[in-house]
Structure prediction request, 337 residues.
Amino acid sequence: MNGARMKLNSATQLCRIVYRVQKVSCRNVQLKGKSMTLRVIGLMVAATCLLFAPALTAFTVGQEEPGVAEIRKATEKLTTAFGQGKSDELAAMFLVNGELIDEEGTVYQGQKEIKELAAAFFERFPGTQVRNEIESIRIVGPVAIQEGKRVTTAKDGTTSTVRYIGVLSKTDQGWRIASLRDFADEAMPTPGEFLSPLAWLVGDWINEGADARVKITYRWSEDKNFILGDILVTKNDQVVMKSSQRIGWDALHGSPRSWTFDSDGGFAEATWTQVEDTWIVRSSATMPDGQTGSAILKIVNEGNGRYVMAGSNRIIGNVLEDDYQVTVVKKPPTAAK
Prediction:
């Protein structure tokens, strides 16, 4: 493969598009020891679009470069071939040694292999449709380069979107695809999805020490983009402090960030960094009297409804406070009456 990634034999490895488009099993989709995916065939579907793509570019009638009309004419034949499941005509769109490269870098090379892959796909995934969103086409001598997005629609209506780059070569037989490559174009995760490693915090927690009782409740915000916390500190059944906390995703720095507001007027801001199974929380605070403070917290989720929080480097004003460590446990659900 001249340095390209070797084709993989695992059905799981090659069944990449199915989880987004059809959610079908990766089992029993084999092609001579190799498995096949809807994403890979989506590449071949795009090949059809490549051959008529220039008709959708900024060219206007009377300004088309030589070859565009030829490509247009070939389109009808090739789109019909795909719709009728004619794998031989589809494979003929490629150069004899043309290649398909999926978004993981797996290479499928040569008309024979592409034809076999297409034939197996037509049998396994009938009714698949494709739509190209062409962004640019450049014709440079005997070569045309096309870039854009491709939306593949499965029979049940679910879709998958990828970016692609195609290179077409002008031959004596007309335009043929030399290389067609996909790139992932998945939607950016939501802030809430970025916060999923902290989802275990959601629930009611308590810590009872010799000097105070702390009750902590975490929940998702209505829009699922923040984790909201309410902290209640009591001593001898008297409220000592109430605090509210909001944990969000800091897209600029690529990590969670929290803001805490105390009932006495103080407030704090902190950055959260995950190091293996430990969260390092670096906090800076402003007290009601204007003094500033800082601390480093280490939070370890031990599982089974408990976590350990250790505070160090605690400075208030010019005073270095003692370190501490507490164990916080999840409050058992209240028994139904």
Summary: The mean pLDDT is 78.
